Amino acid sequence: MNTLRTIASLLYPDVMSLDVTGPLQVFASANVERQRQGLGPVYCLKILGDAPGPIVTSAGFRLHADEAWCDTPAGMLDTLLIPGGAGVEAQCQHTALLNWLRDSQPTIRRLGSVCSGALILAAVGLLNGRRATTHWADVGALACHDNVIVEGDRLHTYDPSGKDGYPDVFTSAGVTAGIDLALALVEADLGRPMALLVARRLVMFLRRPGGQTQFSACLSPDPSHTPRLAMLLDWIPAHLSETLTLERLAEQAHMTPRTLSRLFIREVGMGPGRYIEQLRVETARALLHDAQASISTVARLCGFGHPENLRRTFQKHLAVSPQAYMARFGS
Hints:
By secondary structure, the protein is of the alpha/beta class. Helix content is 43%, strand content 11%. The two termini are 35 Å apart. 40% of the residues are buried.
């Protein structure tokens, strides 16, 4: 591969620094891994601002723009990423930037957003009729754009095949999901083995599928205003190996099944069945990662029963088998 692909990130005042540096580091690490193999670099990285020079991020420190976006020929950009951050609202009113993005999009091979950067793409009109995601806290703002199909629990909407997403304009969820997106882009460019090498170098799990939820069952909102539900959520992890039907949970919480289902959806954001399935997957991942038990034992301890049930659920949530996960990431 002789031609360098230019990967650029927008930079503006009060940007979320990790939205810029996280994805760019993935591409930089791909260059390093190729160098280790005696190969040349693939990516040329640039940061674009209103003008060249330092720009203060939301963290208070400065990042340096290499050149002005208005002076950058769009046809020279392979991929442009639009980060989010506290300054995104001002950029949504930045007429010159919006016009440049609108005019440039047809000649940029891939245009994507990280976190609330999706709001900038929506302001341009580039998400009209498309499925899009963003940081969970900004889903409501994105949904104000009537022509955008908001899928707020996705990690990203990139899919080079076009079957489950969009290969030219796409979005990703909050902060670290931008790294998942960048890994998906590297995989599309250089293949899964290279993306796996980069993920290992960055001590990451490769690869969370774009359709995987950005929420963690273990990080669900604390329903402290409903003590009986809070007690049930504390009780469930110690009983994952048991049969946890809706009726069993309702009996434990001293509620009717219908009331319990409504409470889960209102206060946890999902139904009891989905919550328990995600909690079982996360617990199984932790056990496999630490090599604390065999796959059959993990299946039993986490309530999957047979290892085949664990395999199917892993494929559904993580797009990888328990055996492959343990081989790659087990201690």
